[in-house]
Amino acid sequence: MEVKIGALPRMKALFVLSLILAIGFSCVAAIIEQPADGADEGLSTYIIHVQKPTDELASLAADDFEQWYQSYLPLSLDSSKQPHSRIVYSYKNAMTGFAVRLTPSEAKALESKNGVLYAKKEKIIPLHTTHTPGFLRLNQYKGLAADGNQGEGVIIAVLDSGITLDHPSFSAVGMPPPPAKWKGKCEFNNRTVCNNKIIGARNFIQPFNGAPKQPPFDKEGHGTHTASTVAGRPVKGANAFGMAPGTAVGMAPLAHLAIYKVCSDRGCPESAIMAGLDAAIADGVDIISMSLGGFDNSFYESAVATGSFAAIQKGIFVSCPAGNQGPSRGTLSNEAPWVLTVGASNVDRSIRATVRLGNGAEYDGESLNQFFHIQPLPLAYAGAGRDSYSAFCGPGSLSNFNVKGKVVLCDRGGNVRMVDMGIEVKKAGGAAIIIANDGLNADSIEAKAHALPTSYISYDAGLKIKNYIKSTPNPTATILFKGTIIGNTTAPTVASFSSRGPNILSPGILKPDIIGPGVSILAAWNAPLDNGARSKPTDYIPYLCGLGYKDKQVSIITKTNVRCSTVRRIAEAQLNYPSFSVVFGISPQRYTRTVTNVDRSGASYLSKVYAPAGVDVTVSPSVIKFSRNNQTATYTVTFTKKAGSSSVGQYSEGAILWFSGQHFARSPISVTFN
């Protein structure tokens, strides 16, 4: 992997990073096993990885590949379930193998066959702006910075729940035609056709019970939202309940969109994800965006990781979300180093709903619904002197509690949705609701729609309001609705729901890679000047062997025949990655990085170290001099644990910055004391 510093090329860095910052956030939940289809009782979908064929077979067409895959299946199947009807998908680009309906015993027998690397039962992965371009210093009507190319000529694949083709965000007016390399298909019917914006759309969700395959329409809305955030055209007058009004525009409004429906209301089957990746690679896309992911035990078991590796082998950039399981540690998904993993941050916009108490104290909260200011009313805490469930204002919890005409304070938690809290308070006769955040999420609040006047406040504010209620026999409160407020100077900060490291599958690789706006985004940051990275797929083989993977397991990922015994293995933290993840024992640790000058001329870079607490950091050489474009240089970083520094399980953070007269590059450092 090469680490780039200097003026990153617009196409390769500014566009890609600013785009990806907008697309990496979606609900990423626990993986569930695929339910058996009632029509094929006892059968489940298995993904079968086989050895890469000889050069002669590798040149076969996709249909011929399926015939070759059928040769792996047993011929002694029930007459009503012959091999040709069992194969769900045949893959050629994203992996070498196929998806097939089998019983557990059939799958076990198939895995023992010569040439079969791995048979895994499919899992179902659940699915994980108007102001954002201005916050990121992007031109409101152009998406990218005014001197950027707005994504023109770039094809972005969105693997999600489909698309609403007639939405104004996908207007083709003024759009150039797609590049000549485009080979994709449009699977809408004759009345609904693709255009120069949506240049292709396919559906990889298998119909149930023999029903006909449907066009890739978006019934969930998730895919449409993601696609418009990525590359939507300007839409004037966008708002949510009248709030945050403006012109909604994607981050790359002139980019072409290729839609691959791999998710439905049942989730995202791994076999469909792999089929979408297989098609996207063949179709000639430049970037793949997948707002989905889950938890895996290894990279070779992950459809996203293995399929993405095939994409980067073809020079395709892949981005996935870190997940929404924060703020607990070790909750990441999509940890593979060849995927850009994006965490979520807030923006500098809030839709303000301020609580004013009877003693004059005010606490800022948020609410998407902006009502008229309410007059001071009696204030009551739902959990005062009652069972713990009542504090969460869950369904039926306030039936015997007099809240009529009052402002009711409820606590977030108890597996009660916030919208249901408002419904319960309204049902019980309450006039308004204050929702206090829980301690885990603390200050991370966002604007949501509610059933009655509401303010969603921080955990600390909730504690202070409870103390006020205890301090007076007649507590009162009002809510002041102030509308859209721009200029939160603390933004961006990591959203509480954004999944955190450390990287469980590979602790030596720091993830997420970057963060970007993911809180209160209505629909569609100039790139961090952090180090850009471009990978060479062969660089990962010593890394994967160094993880202790067996030859077959590495071959599943790389789609090549690998013998780790002949490979010079490297420690995972030695991979030429833009960041450093250091797991300390006792001995000092030393890592090297190779950087490439992408400025058009020579430059000198001076290093500045922000050492993590408890660690000494030495960089050698401390100055890197380049005389020409694309020149490389290598530096070494030594990490030494200070005597008496943090104990086991503690974390510390820092960074190394490289400055020239015009540019700087930043390498984050994360230290775990083991």
From TrEMBL:
<dbReference type="InterPro" id="IPR036852">
    <property type="entry name" value="Peptidase_S8/S53_dom_sf"/>
</dbReference>
<dbReference type="InterPro" id="IPR046450">
    <property type="entry name" value="PA_dom_sf"/>
</dbReference>
<keyword id="KW-0645">Protease</keyword>
<dbReference type="InterPro" id="IPR045051">
    <property type="entry name" value="SBT"/>
</dbReference>
<dbReference type="Pfam" id="PF17766">
    <property type="entry name" value="fn3_6"/>
</dbReference>
<dbReference type="InterPro" id="IPR037045">
    <property type="entry name" value="S8pro/Inhibitor_I9_sf"/>
</dbReference>
<feature type="domain" description="Subtilisin-like protease fibronectin type-III">
    <location>
        <begin position="574"/>
        <end position="671"/>
    </location>
</feature>
<dbReference type="Pfam" id="PF02225">
    <property type="entry name" value="PA"/>
</dbReference>
<keyword id="KW-0732">Signal</keyword>
<keyword id="KW-0964">Secreted</keyword>
<protein>
    <submittedName>
        <fullName>Uncharacterized protein</fullName>
    </submittedName>
</protein>
<dbReference type="InterPro" id="IPR010259">
    <property type="entry name" value="S8pro/Inhibitor_I9"/>
</dbReference>
<dbReference type="InterPro" id="IPR015500">
    <property type="entry name" value="Peptidase_S8_subtilisin-rel"/>
</dbReference>
<keyword id="KW-0325">Glycoprotein</keyword>
<feature type="domain" description="Peptidase S8/S53">
    <location>
        <begin position="151"/>
        <end position="520"/>
    </location>
</feature>
<dbReference type="InterPro" id="IPR023827">
    <property type="entry name" value="Peptidase_S8_Asp-AS"/>
</dbReference>
<dbReference type="InterPro" id="IPR003137">
    <property type="entry name" value="PA_domain"/>
</dbReference>
<feature type="domain" description="Inhibitor I9">
    <location>
        <begin position="45"/>
        <end position="128"/>
    </location>
</feature>
<dbReference type="Pfam" id="PF05922">
    <property type="entry name" value="Inhibitor_I9"/>
</dbReference>
<dbReference type="InterPro" id="IPR041469">
    <property type="entry name" value="Subtilisin-like_FN3"/>
</dbReference>
<comment type="similarity">
    <text>Belongs to the peptidase S8 family.</text>
</comment>
<feature type="domain" description="PA">
    <location>
        <begin position="392"/>
        <end position="465"/>
    </location>
</feature>
<feature type="signal peptide">
    <location>
        <begin position="1"/>
        <end position="30"/>
    </location>
</feature>
<dbReference type="GO" id="GO:0006508">
    <property type="term" value="P:proteolysis"/>
</dbReference>
<keyword id="KW-0378">Hydrolase</keyword>
<dbReference type="GO" id="GO:0004252">
    <property type="term" value="F:serine-type endopeptidase activity"/>
</dbReference>
<keyword id="KW-0720">Serine protease</keyword>
<dbReference type="Pfam" id="PF00082">
    <property type="entry name" value="Peptidase_S8"/>
</dbReference>
<dbReference type="InterPro" id="IPR000209">
    <property type="entry name" value="Peptidase_S8/S53_dom"/>
</dbReference>
